[in-house]
Amino acid sequence: MGTEREKKDVLMRLKRIEGQMRGLQRMVEEEVPCADILTQVAAVTAAMKKVGMVIVQAYMGECLDKTEREGGTKRANTLKDFQKAMSRYIDWA
């Protein structure tokens, strides 16, 4: 998954999101008003989308580098895999 720096960035973001999720659980347990919970859900959703974009950028770089070294069918398959992954991500985001 990309460079070591990108990997550390993604892991740091995921740990932060994990903390946000625990906070959300506490909010529900403590019966915090729904509007406050929804605000936190929106923050977690935005953070997940950002992680997704970081991963997409890393994957795109890897994919493009890989396709430059490959030819023919391998290149087509690599690009097809990338397109499938992007399609799944876009449907989610």
Query: What is the 3D form?
Result: elongated
* Class from helix and strand fractions: mainly alpha
Overall pLDDT score: 87
Known CATH architecture: Up-down Bundle
Helix content: over 70%
Give the termini distance in whole angstroms: 20 Å
The first-level CATH class is given as Mainly Alpha
Please name the fourth-level CATH homologous superfamily: Metal-sensitive repressor, helix protomer
How many individual domains?
A: 1
Largest sheet: none
Named CATH topology: Methane Monooxygenase Hydroxylase, Chain G, domain 1
* Rg on CA atoms, Å: 18 Å
Number of helices: 3
Topology, number of strands: 0
Question: H/E order of the elements?
Answer: HHH
Low-confidence stretches are none
Strand content: under 5%
Task: Please give a structural write-up.
The protein is mainly α and 93 residues long. It has one domain: Metal-sensitive repressor, helix protomer (Methane Monooxygenase Hydroxylase, Chain G, domain 1, Up-down Bundle). 89% of the residues lie in helices and 0% in strands. It is built from 3 helices and no strands. It has helices at 4-29, 34-69, 72-92. Helix 1 (4-29) runs antiparallel to helix 2 (34-69). It is elongated. The protein starts with a helix and ends with a helix. The model has no long low-confidence stretch (mean pLDDT 87).
